[in-house]
Design goal:
A four-stranded antiparallel sheet has the order 1-2-4-3, with no helix packed on it. The protein contains four helices and four strands, in the order ααββααββ. It has helices at 3-12, 26-37, 59-65, 68-76; strands at residues 45-49, 52-55, 80-82, 87-91. The longest helix is centred in the middle third of the chain and has 12 residues, at 26-37. Helix 2 packs antiparallel against helix 4 (68-76). It starts with a helix and ends with a strand. It is globular and about 30 Å long. By secondary structure, the chain is of the alpha+beta class.
């Protein structure tokens, strides 16, 4: 999928944000899935400001391998796609 399609999935399923049961801490579950889909030795958090932080996972790389179900899982874990910065973000 393209980054535009990825953004559309995030938008279409925003009603699932932090919804449902996740096995274990949701941030760790999201980080594990991101690392499984887009393995990296970089720090997962690229920057932080006040009560929000952004992730280093590339939207282009994730779009190339993720399924819609993967994206829905990430949304349920609290991941958002920040189109202003073309990156993924979470609230602390």
């Amino acid at each position: 999928m393209t980054v535009e399609e990825l953004a559309e999935i995030f938008e279409a399923h925003d009603d699932k944000y932090l919804e449902g049961e996740i096995d274990g801490p949701s941030d760790l579950a999201a980080f594990n899935l991101l690392n499984k889909l887009v393995p990296s030795n970089k720090d997962i958090v690229s920057c932080a400001e006040h009560d929000e932080f952004w992730l280093s996972t590339s939207p282009e790389e994730l779009a190339a391998v993720a399924t819609e179900e993967d994206i829905i899982f990430l949304i349920r874990c609290g991941i958002r796609f920040d189109e202003d910065t073309d990156s993924f973000a979470m609230f602390a």
